[in-house]
Specification:
The complex is a heterodimer of chains A (about 280) and B (about 450). With about 280 residues, chain A is mainly alpha-helical. Chain A has two domains: about 1-120, Four Helix Bundle (Hemerythrin (Met), subunit A), CATH 1.20.120; about 140-285, no CATH class. Chain A contains nine helices and no strands. Chain A has helices at about 5-25, 30-60, 70-95, 100-115, 135-165, 175, 180-215, 225-245, 250-275. The longest helix of chain A has about 35 residues, at about 135-165. The relative contact order of chain A is 0.11. Chain B is elongated, with a radius of gyration of 37 Å. Chain B has three domains: about 1-65, no CATH class; about 95-155 and about 395-440, TATA-Binding Protein (2-Layer Sandwich), CATH 3.30.310; about 185-370, no CATH class. Chain B has ten helices and 19 strands. Chain B is an alpha+beta fold. In chain B, helix 8 packs antiparallel against helix 9 (about 370-390). Chain B has helices at about 1-10, 15-35, 40-45, 50-55, 65-95, 105-110, 130-135, 160-180, 370-390, 420-440; strands at about 115, 140-145, 145-155, 185-190, 195-200, 205-225, 230-240, 245-250, 255-260, 260-280, 285-290, 295-300, 305-315, 315-325, 335-340, 340-345, 350-370, 395-400, 410-415. The two termini of chain B are about 65 Å apart. In chain B, strands 4, 5, 6, 7, 8, 9, 10, 11, 16 and 17 form a ten-stranded antiparallel β-sheet that branches. In chain B, a hairpin with a 6-residue loop joins strand 18 and strand 19 (about 410-415). Classes of the chains: A mainly alpha (about 280), B alpha+beta (about 450). The interface of A and B includes residues 127, 131, 209 and 223 of A.
Amino acid sequence: MDSSQLLGITTFTYLFSTVLYIAVLVFKTPKLGIIATVFTALAWFVQTAGLVLRWIESYQLGIGHAPLTNMYESVVFFAWTIILLYLLIEWKFKTKIIGAFAVPFAFLAMAYASFSTDLNKAINPLVPALQSNWLIAHVVTCFVGYAAFAVAAALGIMYLLKNKSSGDDTSSSSISSRLPSPTVIDDIIHKTMVFGFIWLTGGIITGAIWANSAWGTYWSWDPKETWSLITWFFYAIILHARYTRGWSGTRIAFLAIFGFISVLFTYYGVNFLLSGLHSYGSS
Amino acid sequence: MILVNQFWNFFSSVKLAIFTLCSLAATSIIGTIIPQGEPAAFYVKNYGAKTAHFLQVLDIPEMYYSWWFLGLLGILSTNLIICSFDRFPSVWKIITTDNLGITPERVEKMSNFSKWEFGTNKLDKIDLAGMLKQGGWKATSRKLGDNELFFCEKGRWSRTGVYIVHLSILVIFVGAIIGHFFGFKGSVMIPEMRSAQKVFGYKNEGTLQLGFEIRCNTFTIEFYDNGMPKEYRSSLTVLEDGKEVLTKDIEVNTPLTYKGITFYQSSYQGYQDFLLNITDKSTGDSKIFTLPFQKQMTWDEKDLHFGIINAEAVGQRVVRSKVWFKAGENPASIEWLADNNQATFVSGAKEYTISAKQMYATGLQVAKDPGVWVVYIGCGIMLIGLYMAFFMSHQRIWLYKKNGSATPELWLSGSANKNKMGFSKGFLELKNRIEHAVQR
């Protein structure tokens, strides 16, 4: 058994979990919900094992480093963080319905990591610039933030669905009625976004400190840095709009989705569409 | 006066903050699409003369340092300062107010109000302060005649969180400004065995004197088996008035700092020259020679003649070199040496250790930034402020023991400024606790 097999199993189990969560949403079967949670948790443990094994394998190759150093590894870690956050939210807010919206994100990420031909799946040694203790701190803080924003976007989609169908509460209300109330979704969107904002801030700060220790400048307006700042501004605007102008509901749901598009561009778009210092993730 | 008021209102508004943040976010995108800091010809070539002129007028090639971008940051700072001055006094009043100084009737009008009535004087038997303490609330109290008012609060200072975040942004700006005016960034290329006293600034400052000398002793590259670079390492020595004061090996993530100036490993350059290190084993004498390719040199005192007569390279990097060596009248010997490896040459009764390596220059990034710690402190303050602002809330509880009337009463109310759902849970717990004590 090697790490790529475990991560392959993870991909399919996340697909299965997605199907289960959607089934929970469509059919009124609370028992299915428990199965969905168990499967998701199981897949998450398999993925954890896969990541740990990949870490061990890198040491066996004599180039030991945490599995957080290229696009493939980061996408896998992104999926891992989404599921971890989702399971925590499910446990804290006692609702399984969010799974039908959040787990697909993790599945899509894993499917992209597994099947895309653009990504290099080999374990490669670290170039000198990446040999730093800041690597783990920087990548982990950023990706916890990204995953939180992904979950916030999933909740945003859920909110819009709920809101749309609550207008005509006779026809499609069967599914919609099983979604949490708009106020609850709105509250969770806000909390997830705040959580992501703090981690993104931490990610930018650790990145700045690392850049300073490697290149002698904590901020060089490199496209990656700039886009992370744009994303930070975006969420800062949302938070100000909420706290001081009382924005909530549909507007915030839309902004959560747009914010995540900015996150995706920072994470993915910059590496492939723009050039810059931060080009480790593009292979 | 009206003008001052208008100015104040304009700069204290959240609308302005949102507008400025939107402008900063939107304009920042430009610099990620149009490459920054290229020479003027680059823009003419890529965008045509007309567009290039337009870009130059708007300072787009250096947009993050342009008057208008810095202007936006200036507006943001002014906005932050004035809006904080505008709002902070009222927040400070809430933080420092005497919460026991309220008229008890106000408790009745607050949110989450509950009331218990007692037929007897059983109320005196209940240890209210102790009960609050059990619920995790430390109470202060004040007697008002026969009655008593209790007050507890948590997270009073969390109200300052948002101002701390705003302050942290200003601290970071101050750090950046200090770095701009009192620091510099530059680079220098130092060949092995040579030293430099000045570096070349990135901006228009030209050459900059270090005030001391920095020498590159050696530069080495290591590669992984697959050909990827593994390590760039320079051994550097700092010299003051010709005397060595500090020697350190630097790598990409481990720079050398001396007198506030930091040297970072950033690039290198290979030469066609070689460094030959010869040690006379019998005496221990040792000397390093800089040797051009295929040129003979001599160590006169020892009557040694030597040269590199051939070399094998991968790209610009020499892998091994062929050393020709002759001591006195003994016959010459020739040997292939792997780069940076040594071998022993026997000549008559004497033995010499010789190592040969390609000569490199190390490329150093040089930076002095006295503001960097201010920036880091600002970052730390920001994280603390964000935590306070988002994860803590100011929770207040009033408990009023009303003995005066015929039926003694107990009033309870409380509120939180944030996370009201979380507060309700804790509040309900306290209510149940009191309920329980009352019914016993």
